[in-house]
Every structure is written in C-alpha cells, then in structure tokens.
Amino acid sequence: MAAKRPTWKDSKYADAKGKFKELKPAALATWLIKSRRGNKRAIIGSLNQQIVFNRNKRPSYARKMITTRNIVNKRLGSKKKK
Predict the structure, then answer these.
(1) DSSP annotation of 5
(2) How far apart are CA 20 and CA 74, in angstroms?
(3) Cα separation of 82 and 76, whole Å?
(4) How crowded is residue 25: how many other Cβ atoms within 10 Å of its Cβ?
(5) Is residue 46 within 8 Å of 57, Cβ to Cβ?
(6) 42-80 CB burial, b ≥16 within 10 A, e <16
(7) Hey, which end of the chain has fewer CB within 10 Å, N or C?
C-alpha cells in the first residue's frame, strides 16, 4: 500500500509564496497561467497535487483547488483540431 502513495514533487516554476492560500480561485487561475507560461499540464499537475494532499485534512481548500482547476480548464480549453 505504501508504494502506491503519492509523493510530493517540487515544481521548476516560481514558488507561490502563499498565493494558493491567499488568492481567490479566479485570481489564482490568472496567476498560474501567467507564471507557468500557459503550460496547462504544469498548472493542472500543481493543482491536482494540492487537491490530493489536502482533500482529507482541509476539504474546503481542496474544493477551492478543484474550482481553480475548472477555471483554468475553461480558460485554456483543449487544443483539439476538428
């Protein structure tokens, strides 16, 4: 069971310095898009990590990260060609 547990990974991007906790979801989405240079994979990965590591101890914070993830997905959309 311990082998399947997620591990924390630091990002190569700028440190948030409390922005995840302080900013509202829309503002956080804007900051993430700007600081991660629109790299959707990096943004969603950092939000998923926050969700996984906080869903049991801080469910309201995890819900905020889910809301932010939804905003990022909506703004960046998918790049599928028809």
Answers:
(1) S
(2) 19
(3) 17
(4) 17
(5) no
(6) bbbebbebbbebbeeeeeebbebbbbbbebbeeeeeeee
(7) C
Task: Please state, in angstroms and as integers, the Cα–Cα distance from residue 10 to each residue in 14, 15, 42, 70, following that order.
Answer: 10, 9, 11, 22
Contact 14, 35 (CB under 8 A): yes
For the chain (length 82 residues), average pLDDT per consecutive 10? 72 77 95 92 93 95 96 84 52
Q: What is the value of pTM for the model shown?
A: 0.79
Task: Please give the distance of CA 45 from its chain centroid, rounded to a whole number.
Answer: 6
Please enumerate in sequence order all residues whose Cβ is within 8 A of that of 61, keeping only pairs 6 or more positions apart, or say none: 21, 50, 54
User: Which residue is listed with tokens 């240079």?
Assistant: 37
| Residue located via tokens 């900051």 | 31
